[in-house]
Specification:
This protein is of the alpha/beta class. The protein has seven helices and 18 strands. A hairpin with a 2-residue loop joins strand 8 and strand 9. Keywords: Dioxygenase, Iron, Iron-sulfur, Metal-binding, Oxidoreductase. This is Toluate 1,2-dioxygenase electron transfer component.
Amino acid sequence: MTHKIALNFEDGVTRFIDAAIGETVADAAYRQGINVPLDCRDGACGACKCFAESGRYDLGEEYIEDALSEAEAEQGYVLTCQMRAESDCVVRVPAASDICKTQQANYQAAISNVRQLSESTIALSIKGEALNQLAFLPGQYVNLQVPGSDQTRAYSFSSLQKDGEVSFLIRNVPGGLMSSFLTNLAKAGDSVNLAGPLGAFYLREIKRPLLLLAGGTGLAPFTAMLEKIAEQGSEHPLHLIYGVTHDHDLVEMEKLEAFAARIPNFSYSACVASPDSAYPQKGYVTQHIEPKHLNDGEVDIYLCGPPPMVEAVSGFIREQGLEPANFYYEKFAASA
């Protein structure tokens, strides 16, 4: 039996390793060709100090206070030369991936399905034998190479990997390189290269209520997160607010309804900013955040949307005089 350890490097690269029962994370990483910072191996120097964001593990008693204090251990800091995983874990490594002699992984796959969900949104699915080895944290993204060019575009996974297949929600940008390919040329079987996973925007261990805020195709990482939550369950309430500009930008509403049926404590709402909208709820996401969603600050907020939305939400939270327990966000802008 092994446990899967996600190593998140400070340059955004994530690599997954398998750690055997009783094997230290440092030994597992080195066995799989990843040189995490390390010096003494005895828990005496602190060179391998990292931060465990989630998972259960044993730190043993062989390290000394100078290497890892009791207060640091309580906060979640670990020494990878002593850490032995007791479940799947996520570990933040304070070093760049290239320094640790690793880099983002590359995969080759093929288009399995491409659909125009609306005039503004394209759903893309790709599949390949190599993707059976692809692991990522829900919310992360990859760089997809635009077929026929050397250009890449970054897209968040909108699904978990299943049977070598993953999906994305892609904004249809007029004149966009990827958009033009998908709307005019793409067909099932076309080869696609991708590199990753990347990004610090991903679902952490759920320890309190969540408020999820999505703008446009920023919905993608949340549908991947909700798939994971539906699998593992959550005792805490979760609420998603999905905001778009026009009525035709609303997509995947059936999927959100299905999540609401599968996850007992999950609820969602949507709103449309255009004053000409026929949708019942109008305005911006900030107009639909209720006090109960903020839970007096005892809440983790996840936000994915364009820069103006991120700035507006940040300003709104400050105006409430609250500081959420955690505020994770990812800005995105379309590439022409």
